[in-house]
Amino acid sequence: MIFRPFYDFGTGCAAYVFGCGALGKCAVVDPKETENQNYAAFAESKGMRITHVIDTHVHADHRSGGPALAKKTGATYCLHAAADVALPFDPLRDNQEIELGNTRVRVLHTPGHSPESVCLVVTDLRRGFDPWFVLTGDTLFVGAVGRPDLPGHARENAGDLYDSIHAKLLTLPGDVEIYPGHFSGSMCGAGMSGKPSSTIAFEKRWNPMLGKTRQEFVSALSDVPPKPVGMEEILRVNQGKAGVR
Fold first, then answer.
1. Edge-to-edge strand list for the sheet holding 2-8
2. d(CA 89, CA 83)
3. CA–CA distance from 39 to each of 4, 20, 28, 70 (Å)?
4. Domain 2-223, CATH 3.90.230.10 — does that match?
5. How many whole angstroms separate alpha carbon 140 and alpha carbon 162?
6. What share of the chain is helix, strand, coil (3-state, %, to 5)?
7. Torsion region of 165: left, alpha or beta (phi above 0 gives left; psi -120 to 50 gives alpha)
8. Domain positions in the chain
9. Phi, psi of 220 (to 5 degrees)
10. Is the dihedral angle over the CA atoms 209, 142, 48, 33 positive or is it negative?
């Protein structure tokens, strides 16, 4: 498998390009609009065709490059079926598998940060049948969890986030690596580490949010940072509703 993170250390955002070098198929996850040329250039340099562009959720802190990159490369643009957007996309569903040659991606619907949030469990069949890593979007960070307040209904969403993390992510093997959508510097969660990756076992041991009861977890998430600057306009753009008030 070919795997390349793209880190923006100014904003704390992460995007990922990964796929099967042997069969030349790859996906781009959570692309930023300003970096589309870099993702495409990397894929081309490795002899891979971008077949899927996936947003783990509708982003509130930066403009997604997903729709434009998919259009440019002829890839399928993917969001979870629950996404409230006014643009065409291929709807993802819980436990769906995406085939990228010898690389396989299993979709986990993990609502909480937003209703349409997903995590992506990635396996390299040439390495074995066990999952290698999971892209956790804004659901689970290194040392923190996603904020539940951006769509509104913060306490209800915090409960959903707790359930998603404990029922879906923490049931994965401990040696599975996690690669979140953000690290320190982002406004999409509080207390994030500057370290951009971790493992399930490490987070179980050291992430202060994961040892809390459901009630403690929900109460702790009432203390969130300010909302991202320009959030409403960014959301309208990413939903394909720019200009609609």
1. 2-8, 13-20, 25-29, 49-54, 76-80, 90-92
2. 9
3. 9, 15, 7, 11
4. no
5. 10
6. 25, 30, 45
7. alpha
8. 2-223
9. -65, -30
10. positive
Tokens 């969660």, residue located: 189
Chain segment 74-106, per-residue pLDDT in tens: 999 999 999 999 999 999 999 999 999 999 999
Give the CA count within 13 Å in the CB-facing half-sphere of 161. Answer: 35
Residue 142: pLDDT over 90: yes
Find where tokens 């100014």 sit: 10
- Non-local (6+) Cβ contacts of 70 within 8 A are 53, 76, 77
Q: Is the dihedral of CA 119, 156, 220, 233 positive or negative?
A: positive
Alpha carbons 68 and 112: distance in angstroms, whole number:
27
**Tell me, what's the pLDDT at 244?**
41
Q: What is the residue type of 70? A: A
What does residue 5 show for φ and ψ, rounded to 5 degrees? Answer: -80, 150
Q: Does the structure show a pLDDT above 80 at 227?
A: no
Non-local CB neighbours of 216 within 8 Å, separated by 6+ positions? none
Cross-strand bridge partners of residue 178: 134, 198
